[in-house]
Amino acid sequence: MLKIHNTLSRDKQDFIPIEPNKVRMYVCGMTVYDYCHAGHARVMVVFDMVYRWLKASGYDVTYVRNITDIDDKIIKRAAENNESIHALTQRFIDAMHEDERALGVLAPDHEPRATQFVPQMLEMIAQLEQNGMAYRAADGDVNYAVRKFPGYGKLSGKSLEDLRAGERVDVADSKHDPLDFVLWKHAKESEPAEVKWESSWGPGRPGWHIECSAMASEILGRHFDIHGGGADLQFPHHENEIAQSEGAHQCQFVNYWMHNGFVRVDNEKMSKSLGNFFTIREVLKKFDAEVMRFFILRAHYRSPLNYSDMHIDDAKSALTRLYTALKDVPPSLPIDAIQIDWDVPAAKAFKVAMDDDFNTPEAMAVLQGLAKEINISKSRDVANLLLALGGVLGLLQQPPIRFLQGGERIVATLHLTAPAPTLEARGEALDIDALIEARAAAKQAKNFAEADRIRKELLAAGIVLEDSAAGTTWRRA
RNA sequence: GGUGCGAUAGCAAAGCGGUUAUGCCCCGGAUUGCAAAUCCGGUUAGCCCAGUUCGACUCUGGGUCGCACCUCCA
């Protein structure tokens, strides 16, 4: 039985879907005005893992992850770049999709863009106004009246009093309550036509929070199973989503709220505002994308995750161990042909871990255990299981040799880039196969000094040789 | 100030009221021409103070420290 930590109740609960065998899930995606950073990578990978596990558990899953393509920051950035909103957002949507593909993140079933759902948002705002929960302020904005929603604060565990006590910003006078938030922003002269929509409250554009409420209910219905996002969205974004959706529809919005922990740098949250972020593409220049994915899944999704090159290197070593086992004992079947027998102890342990609020660190330990078993028994059945369970997490799906030898650079003749001080300096290409052959000849002639010299030369270029009965193979250090 | 979360070995990170987490690093051994990989074994734990218990890293209470949210943020 799958248990999920529900932010709403702050404990683990048995997961019971609204409709048997079906799961409807919504995750807050990116605001597309810049490249995604490691923090975004975590949301993508974590909920991709959730999506995969739900499917592996036999559920028919509908996964929606939205794109916010209209927002203050987007307007500002487009103006700075002297670029249209659409050109800017499309550029970063494309970049985001590239990052996701690299990280092994499956496409969600729906990827709605806010700008495509403005009519639904307007409809919802009208419903809220009709229910007496929205009002038109003096400045022309339409606001949500938090006082009118009795459950306000139930997700974040805050009372209106607590929230007001902590109010740290000057409040617009036009709001009835400092915590009221904008549903519809009236258009400003300075803004481009591209961000103005007609409405019964005059031209304007939607507030951020209403976007998700409208997209989620339009695609998944007014009441669905799982809603996810980063921990920072808990308040106010998700709190406001509840207020909007339940205020408009008068029924429960979401059964299970899931929030992933932050990526940190030097023990501080990685964020745009702090400026301490690394974009996904920066990281992928240094590491295989699968290492990044592995690094993220090595921690529990709700724990903080410290980012540093050292920690990613650590993850790389651990993942290398798994791939080494698969290289030495190749699975006998392709992934699609492997039927996982969940009664096998290791598979069972994996399932128990995953069913316990997606305990991927524990599941990873099972994979390491399988690697050891493979190394000892050389069992191809066990290799099949490792490949299959890895696949459930979106891992271990490259040919081992490709991972170990460095991605696309599988060709025997390498034009080395970064880690090749000696050869690089001479601008030479390194013919690994030829050097391995030369070394084999030297070994044959018992010229170990020469053999070792060649090995050292390759090592200096980041190439590790491994001799075995079957011959010599190489991998990247 | 309010609210919430956390503190595990050199590093990272889980479970668990009593039995090896796991990975990386380190040490010894096997193997190897020497290495690498692999295997066998080993060293390093549970912030502090009380309490509950036959027994606590695990439960309870009190500290201390850290982080997050309360403002756009994954």
Describe this structure in words.
The structure is a single chain. This protein is α/β, with parallel strands linked by helices and 477 residues long. The protein contains 17 helices and 17 strands. The chain has helices at residues 38-56, 72-81, 85-102, 118-130, 160-165, 208-220, 234-249, 280-286, 289-297, 309-328, 345-355, 360-377, 380-392, 400-405, 421-425, 432-444, 448-460; strands at residues 3-6, 11-14, 22-27, 60-65, 134-136, 142-144, 181-186, 204-206, 224-230, 254-260, 263-265, 268-269, 305-306, 413-414, 430-431, 463-468, 471-476. It has a four-stranded parallel sheet with strand order 4-3-9-10, sandwiched between helices. A four-stranded antiparallel sheet has the order 5-6-7-8. It has a three-stranded mixed sheet with strand order 12-11-13, covered by helices on one side. Helix 6 packs across helix 7 (234-249) and helix 9 crosses helix 10. The longest helix has 20 residues, at 309-328. The radius of gyration is 26 Å and the shape is elongated. The chain starts with a strand and ends with a strand. 43% of the residues are buried. The model is unreliable at 407-428 (pLDDT under 50). The protein binds one RNA strand of 74 nucleotides through helix 1, helix 5, helix 7, strand 12 and helix 10.
What is the strand content?
15-25%
Strand tally is 17
**Major sheet description:** 4 strands, parallel
- Residues in helix, %: 40-55%
**Averaged pLDDT, please?**
92
How does the helix and strand content classify structurally?
Answer: alpha/beta
Q: Specify Rg, calculated over alpha carbons.
A: 26 Å
Number of helices: 17
How do the strands line up in the largest sheet?
A: 4-3-9-10
Low-pLDDT residue intervals, each spanning 5 or more residues = 407-428
State the end-to-end distance: 41 Å
> Could you say which overall geometry the principal axes of the C-alpha atoms support?
elongated
